[in-house]
Every structure is written in C-alpha cells, then in structure tokens.
Amino acid sequence: MFASELILESSRSVPVPAAKIAQTILIVLLPVALGMLFRKRKPEAAKKIEPWVQRIAVFFIILLAVIGVRNEWKLLTESGFTILFAVLLFNILNLVFAYGASRMCNLAKKQAIAITFEVGVHNCIMAITIAMSPLLFKSVEMALPAVFYSVVMQVTSGLAVQFFRKTVT
To answer: Model pTM?
Structure first.
C-alpha cells in the first residue's frame, strides 16, 4: 500500500519530474558544497562560525516543523499517534543504518556521528519539499509525517549524537 492510498484514501499516479528532483537535490547539496568550499578556503573562519551555522540550520528546521504543527493541529490530533509511531520507528532505523553504514565504510567515529545527524536533517528537508511540491503531492496530509519526522529527528538525533559521543568516541 502506498502512502497516498493510506493517508489520502485514494490511489493517485505521481509523476516524478527530473527538473524538480534536481532542484530538490540542489536545495540540499548546494549549502553543503558551499560550506565545504568555505571550510577548505577559510578553515579558521569556518571553525569560528560552525556552531552558529549549525544552530541557525536547526532553528529553521524546527521553525518549519512548529509552523506545520500549528497550521495542521486538527489533522495532527486525528492521526497523530499512528504517524508518530511510524516516524519514530523510521528515525531510529535511519540513525542505526546511517551510523552502521558509515562505520562499515571505515569512516572515523566522528565522521560517522556527523553523517548520522546529517542524514536525518536532509531527510527532513527532502520529505517536506516533496510533500508540499506543486509538481508532486502538494498535500498538507502528505507533509504531516514529514513535519512529525522533523520534530522527532531533532530529539532522537540529538540524543543519539550525545550517546555516540559519550560511548563511542
């Protein structure tokens, strides 16, 4: 069963336009590439602003999630626990897989921890973008799990990073 059938109670064909996928990838990858370039050219400056850039990114993700929850409170209260359980399970599996795959690729523990968190952040952005895209779903109902994921990911990823820092490094 597809998510659109489960949530919208109807089956719908969803075209996947290559230009929209490329745009979404650019939204995610462009800031990362620019950050990497800046860090390579100005490593001292990058280290100084890194904590602030991370805080700003987290702030905007949380802000988007809060706005989504506020706007769709009724829908949230009607189907919240089902979505919350699915999102929590997905998030935990995602964290385990991201860390495990990073370590299987022989990445350093610190790199694996960073990748674990980044995968969650990128999933938030991608899920909300796809659900709300005018060329794809353009559906608040389909965006609701993504908004839930954004909130849950911040909490579980933060806890996982703290756990990994204390027990693994």
So the answer is: 0.53
